[in-house]
Amino acid sequence: MQHLKDSYKSEFKAEAVKVNDKEVILIITYFYPTSGGQPNDTGTITRISDNKEFKVIDVKKENNQIIHILDKEGLKENDKVKCKIDWERRYKLMRMHTTAHVISSIIHKETGAMITGNQLDTEKSRIDFSLEKFNKENIENYIKKANEEIKKDHKITISTISKEEAEKIKNLSKLAKGLPPNLKEIRIVTIGSINEQGDGGTHVNSTKEIGAIKLLSIENKGKSNRRLYFSLE
Ligand SMILES: [Zn+2]
After folding, report:
1. pLDDT at residue number 92
2. Which of these, 59, 70, 71, 73, lies nearest to 29 by C-alpha position?
3. Measured in angstroms, how far is the CA atom of residue 19 from the centroid of ligand 1?
4. CA of 51 to the centre of ligand 1 (A)
5. N or C, fewer C-beta in 10 Å, the chain?
6. Which residues in the chain belong to E strands, given as ranges?
7. Alpha carbon of 164 to ligand 1 centroid (Å)
8. How many angstroms separate the alpha carbon of residue 43 from the centre of ligand 1?
9. How far apart are the CA of 160 and the centre of ligand 1, in A?
10. pTM for the complete prediction?
11. Could you give the domains of the chain?
12. pLDDT beyond 90 at 197
């Protein structure tokens, strides 16, 4: 789970420790597996001995292990490899992920709405939230506020705190109580003074890297379920 420590590392050396047809587990990896609304990384794994390149077409997490799915068989256990993450794709997803936290925190602060889900992607991302009274102009205004915050260049910091500490923080206590009892530590993503959230995704270092948010559409999904789509300019 090295991506949790350094989101900006896109090239690294490793060794294949387990190979099952096209599925590979590496001794160390920075590839991000699909989780928490953030899609998997793609990229390449190249065997150092003969320079044979395998494309990473999917990455998943199972039993706390990260499994890389390759485009073909042939990689062997103990093979030494060099790995490269498709940085353009990953960086877009990092910018999208931090943006989703900024928008969610503003909607929550302004309306009290609960964020019920999100799905990030490279071209457009969506946020689902629960809000009975709903007005398109208000949402446009929240996006405007989000853009103003982004321009302030808030720094993003990552920290790890114990579950007991998390339970004491107002906005995190709900999350902390809902976590599995065997989880002892929680990773906290803090965006300047505007948001603090338990999270396992990859984020940019500063909000100025985001650029500007563009509101694409808002959909009604039933009585109080709203869905917002945005892209980045
Ligand atoms: Zn997140």
Report:
1. 97
2. 59
3. 31
4. 36
5. C
6. 11-20, 23-26, 43-47, 53-62, 65-70, 80-85, 114-119, 125-130, 156-162, 185-191, 195-198, 213-220, 225-232
7. 21
8. 22
9. 15
10. 0.93
11. 2-85 (2.40.30.130), 90-232 (3.30.980.10)
12. no
